[in-house]
Amino acid sequence: MTASAPVTQIVDTLGDATESGPMKAGDLVETFGRSAVPPVLIVPGLLVASPLSGIPLFSSFCGFLIFLIAIQGAVGRDYLWLPGILTRRTVPVERTHNAAQKMRKVAGFLDKITRERLQWLVRRPMTRVLYLICGLAALSIPFLELVPFMSSIIGFGVALIAVAILAGDGLVAIFGLTVFAVASVIPFFIISTVSAGLG
Fold first, then answer.
1. In the chain, where are the structural domains located?
2. SS3 call for 81
3. Cβ(37)–Cβ(29) under 8 Å?
4. Of 118 and 196, the one with more pLDDT
């Protein structure tokens, strides 16, 4: 992982891994290493923020994956454990590869804007709090999958938090938390709008 462009390298690794043919989610996780939480967390975050979220139940799958990864980061596990029901799931490699190519611009932008600042926000014990927030946000994805763009917004927030921890950039972590705050308001806004229309 290069220090100068870690997110771009993660996206490139994702693209290369899905270029060789069929693979399972467990193989994809192993590609990034189970001892490094932020890179592994960035991947499902970016994937659910991509057009792949349009695949039925894909967002829910990523939501559960994010939850398990984030909660283990919150409790300080050094090695990630994932259940077989998730690791045995086949990854849609062609769509994932295409999504990785489209995500390169976003990755490049994130690499460009991140730098070390407000580091107390992205060091322990604060990282555990950030992981916990990501995990709780991810739990809502299966329930909000039918709400347009909600899973993508939450996935992008998760990706921002993971990038912030990886790059040591507390300001990006604040942006990620802001995304979560916005996402939490949207369902209530939709419900109130629909209720007003029916009334």
1. 6-198
2. coil
3. no
4. 118
Decide: helix, strand or coil at residue 128: helix
How far apart are alpha carbons 48 and 54 in whole angstroms? 9
Phi, psi at residue 117, to the nearest 5°?
-165, 150
Judged on CB neighbours under 10 Å (0-12, 13-18, 19+), 63 is buried
DSSP element (H, E) containing 49: helix 37-49
**Is it the case that residue 1 has pLDDT exceeding 60?**
no
- As a dihedral over the C-alpha atoms of residue 52, residue 36, residue 114, residue 172, rounded to 10 degrees, the angle is 70
SS3 category, 117 = strand
Q: Single out the residue of 131, 133, 103, 122 nearest to residue 7, CA to CA.
A: 103
Listed residue (24, 138, 11) closest to 74, CA to CA:
138
Distance CA(35)–CA(1), nearest Å, equals: 14
77-105 per-position pLDDT tens digit: 878 888 888 888 888 888 888 888 888 88
Looking at residue 64, its pLDDT comes to 92
pTM to 2 decimals? Answer: 0.87
Give the C-alpha separation, 29 to 7, whole Å: 16
Phi-psi region of 115 (alpha: psi -120 to 50; beta: other; left: phi over 0): beta
